[in-house]
Amino acid sequence: METPIVKTPQEKPVIKGSFASPEAVAHIMTQKFVIYSPLYRQEQDLKRQGVELTRQTMSNWILKASQLWLEPIYEKLRELLIKEEVIHADETTLQVLKTKEKPTPKKAYMWLYRTSGCSEKNIVLYDYKPNRKIENAENFLEGFNGYIHADGYQGYHKLGDNFTVVGCWAHCRRKFAEALEMISKDERANSTAGIALDYCNQLYAIEKK
């Protein structure tokens, strides 16, 4: 007489062929990107608890899980974003310690794209690029037709006829506020900078209302 063997259905692994669990990968990502604990510190902390898990393995888990599970969500969000009428765009410097192309520290850029305050869907997406070339925004926003709300970077004006660049009043107001500091208090109210600042404040009041 044979004894039947019943197998418990196995859950689909977060990474095929790996013993990584969704909870483990989520914890490592949270520690790295939210708590700002680098992988070498996580490696040391796990070792103190008797867990042998190298930073290279953790790095591979992050990369593979991001590719399999997060990139499709990211691309779907990008599809929704470019259907909007208004998109906010900005780019900021980011120091990269080491890359294959350049082993010494260098300056790269993190590009940011997000929906406006009037949008029903709140979407914020980051796009890492090694430079500030406007082709980066052009490629990311392919298919978009509407208003680009940005700072004074002239590159946005080279995007093409599908894009209408609109300026940022926060950046504009800042310059008038700085100019006002150079004027005596008695002359500020009637100065060009003072009148401009008051105009900006009125716009802000309307927006807040």
Task: Describe what this molecule looks like in 3D.
This is IS66 family transposase. With 209 residues, the protein is an alpha/beta fold. It has three domains: 22-80; 84-162, no CATH class; 170-208, no CATH class. It has helices spanning 22-33, 39-48, 55-81, 135-140, 169-180, 185-188, 192-208; strands at residues 86-96, 106-115, 124-129, 146-149, 163-166. A five-stranded mixed beta sheet has the order 3-2-1-4-5. The N and C termini lie far apart (81 Å).
Give a concise summary.
With 209 residues, the protein is of the alpha/beta class. It has helices at 22-33, 39-48, 55-81, 135-140, 169-180, 185-188, 192-208; strands at residues 86-96, 106-115, 124-129, 146-149, 163-166.
Keywords:
209 residues; alpha/beta; 3 domains; 7 helices
Topology:
Blueprint: H1 22-33, H2 39-48, H3 55-81, E1 86-96, E2 106-115, E3 124-129, H4 135-140, E4 146-149, E5 163-166, H5 169-180, H6 185-188, H7 192-208
Parallel strand pairs: 1-4, 4-5
Antiparallel strand pairs: 1-2, 2-3
Mean pLDDT: 91
Low-confidence stretches: none
Which class do the helix and strand fractions yield? alpha/beta
Number of helices: 7
The count of domains is 3
Amino-to-carboxy terminus distance: 81 Å
How many strand segments? 5
General shape: elongated
* Run of helices and strands: HHHEEEHEEHHH
Rounded radius of gyration (Å): 25 Å
Work out the strand percent.
Answer: 15-25%
Strand order of the largest sheet: 3-2-1-4-5
The percentage helix is 40-55%
Largest sheet: 5 strands, mixed
